[in-house]
User: Which sequence fits this backbone?
């Protein structure tokens, strides 16, 4: 099966939009927009994030052992676009978009997200062009109000509404 | 960090709803509803699905080496509920819900999805209570029309609408 066919299929797997961040030993931040993030286990609390091996985030996370997954609210589309590289900004300059704080573990945490998870890198699994980062969640930042998530699917940013009742 | 806090946070990571299926050597089908699925690499075309080690699907996939990920359209909520175990149906009986076919690799493929991926199990990584199934995608079934995906987030089934324009 060709990669074009695969890409066309994957456009149809909608998912929440996140920004995966880390910080290097000199205190320089990096981050990228990712939808390839999912829950793993509740015991221990853990998640999976898949990032390209060639990305700066992959290298920094492997060195620092910490990362954060910031799950964006629907009004944070502009921040998603910056960290997807659309504005052509260099690593540190991207953080001018959004209200960023240093998390307890050092990785940048964005205010106003639906939820942000700080993680300690538990294991890394290499596959093809990508790394599977397995993060043990060390801290969860949940926004008190029920904010609608930002979703990416069919090549567009989307938000959610209640599903119609299923047919019997 | 406690598992309650983690669970509350994970409710906020919205994602597309899938049914992960497989078939055992006696031709018996199994499947479960999962949101912990994401794209991995385009080279080779691959994806990740995280399933509980105690599930029948985990055991069957490890033995058969094949599985399918069926990405549900918003009108397939009733099928999602059956495969989430809400109807209390046994393994094979669940397949009365929805229009199922045998995929080229054997694993059950649901008609009318946004997309269904047939996978050969490339690697398995155990972590905590779960398995990370790494699937090399062998066949993609894409629905021609642009159907809205079924999303699960904040403990509810949702569907998508266009996101409002982001603030400048």
Assistant:
């Amino acid at each position: 099966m060709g990669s074009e066919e695969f890409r066309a299929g994957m456009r149809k797997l909608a998912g929440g939009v996140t920004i995966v961040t880390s910080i290097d030993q000199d205190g320089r931040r990096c981050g990228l927009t990712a939808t390839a993030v999912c829950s793993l286990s509740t015991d221990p609390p853990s998640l999976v994030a898949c990032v390209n091996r060639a990305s700066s985030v992959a290298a920094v996370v492997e060195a620092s052992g910490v990362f954060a997954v910031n799950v964006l609210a629907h009004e944070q589309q502009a921040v998603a676009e910056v960290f997807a590289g659309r504005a052509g900004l260099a690593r540190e300059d991207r953080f001018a978009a959004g209200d960023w704080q240093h998390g307890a573990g050092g990785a940048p945490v964005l205010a106003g997200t639906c939820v942000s998870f700080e993680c300690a890198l538990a294991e890394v699994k290499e596959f093809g062009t990508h790394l599977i980062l397995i993060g043990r969640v060390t801290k969860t930042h949940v926004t008190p109000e029920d904010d609608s998530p930002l979703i990416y699917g069919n090549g567009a940013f989307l938000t959610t509404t209640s599903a119609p009742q299923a047919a019997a």
